[in-house]
Amino acid sequence: MGKRKQMTLKFYQNLGKLFYAVAAVDKNVEAVEFAKLKELVKKQWLNLDTIEDTFGSDAAFQIEIVFDWLNTQGNLNAKSCFDDFIAYKNKQNHLFTDTVKHLILKTAHAIAASFSGINKSELIFLANLDRELKNT
């Protein structure tokens, strides 16, 4: 019997790690990057499924919650967050449909471009993300 393609809180939490890594890869997370993430969660991620957290909120808000928590910690690096996301993706690759992968890339690019365009470290990061998602 195949695995069901049902998103979980852990799925969204790992996306929060990934999108934090996009913003933090240049060692500086800007407020505009978080604002762009919040905008995209509301416009695109909330419509992905109907999963809710224990408080009855849409599970997609976990993306924002994890991003914000990681940002307040200040000592976590982008590489470890990216590696955590990739490890999760490799274990749960059935969740990463073409639609989900496209949405991930679209969100990551928008976050990277939201502050002064895409810099070299963000460009390398996005290329690595694209490569990893193609391996799903």
Automatic annotation (TrEMBL):
- Lineage, top-rank taxon, reads Bacteria
Task: Write down what this protein is called.
Answer: Co-chaperone DjlA N-terminal domain-containing protein
This chain's source organism reads: Yeosuana aromativorans
